[in-house]
Amino acid sequence: MSCNCTNICISGCSYNDDMSDDKYAFVRALRMSGGDGANSYSANSLLQRRVLSMAKPILVKNTEEMMINLGFPKYIKVAELGCSSGQNTFLAISEIINTVNVLCQQLNKNPPEVDCCLNDLPENDFNTTFKFVPFFNEELMSTNKASYFVYGAPGSFYSRLFSRNSLHFIHSSYALHWLSKLPEKLENEKGSVYITSSSPQSVYKAYLNQFQKDFTMFLRLRSEEVVSNGRMVLTFVGRNTRNDPLFRDCCHFWTLLSKSLRDLVFEGLVSESKLDAFNMPFYDPNEQELKEAIRNEGSFEINDLETHGFDLGHSNCDDGEEDDDEAGYNEANAIRAVTEPMLVAHFGGDIIDILFDKYAYHVTKHSSCKNKTSVTLVVSLIKK
Length: 384
Description:
Blueprint: H1 25-28, H2 46-54, H3 56-69, E1 75-81, H4 91-106, E2 113-119, H5 126-131, H6 133-141, E3 148-152, E4 167-173, H7 201-225, E5 226-239, H8 253-266, H9 272-276, H10 287-297, E6 300-309, H11 324-347, H12 352-365, E7 374-383
Parallel strand pairs: 1-2, 1-4, 2-3, 4-5
Antiparallel strand pairs: 5-7, 6-7
Helix pairs in contact: 3-4, 7-10, 8-12, 11-12
């Protein structure tokens, strides 16, 4: 009889950091806010939890197909890339293990042993994540006969992380829209942290080029690590615009952050030059750009590709019944949880509270915005 057990170890991995200049310190500070306090990612990631729930049908379908196509291996290795910190880290892995167990019971197969590898940048708060391992164990032990083991694998997913042909399944949610670095030859965006309708075409092309380089590198590296017929399920913040690649709606989260920072410039709390020097290492691809990158790299076949809605403010409350003021507060907390380390590295910590008070105010002012450009893209891939 197999037993449930967990082994925790941190395996050292290097990650690429070619931005040694101090003006890019905020890029090197990219990580979610750690701990479990009021402003932590762990306490402000309900949207990400709901995205995981939304992607569940694709995750379950691809897990079942992977097990069947690989002939029910006795051992599988699963990786969560960009795991961040908190309970969300274990949601997809739990679903994969539960799906494997149910399928094996239905078909009278012995469940495999499962290695569960949690990856994020070395600065990620792995300690908070590993505090939830006992709850992960307790939940799985009541329903599963499989043996599973949890490991930490710190490092950039834009570098090699695992040995060749060792992974059977990769999951990554809301991580791959973060770039490895700022685009090269990026013109200063006056008063804005990201692409806007007034940006020159060269800004869009620089961001797209950096995304294509990064995502192509990600696919190439994973193709070395994933076994043939292995699977990946990846979720992005994307956009639904094709005709105008510069257009972002008035309530886009980076548009509202830019407005909030400009308020602080007006009030003399932030210098204009400091704002102009700050850009988000982020890109929200549309469906076509994602397809082209996958097909051009050539190592993976697209199995599923879905587009879903994205509503940050009204998706960060348990009951979904919050008013506009509460939605503004929720969205401000959610954006703070994913940007505070970068903002503090560039602007200092004194402005953070007032900045996100401004942000919440701008969310409420734009609550009637209907023509939203942000969407969630979910893609599943099969290693050729």
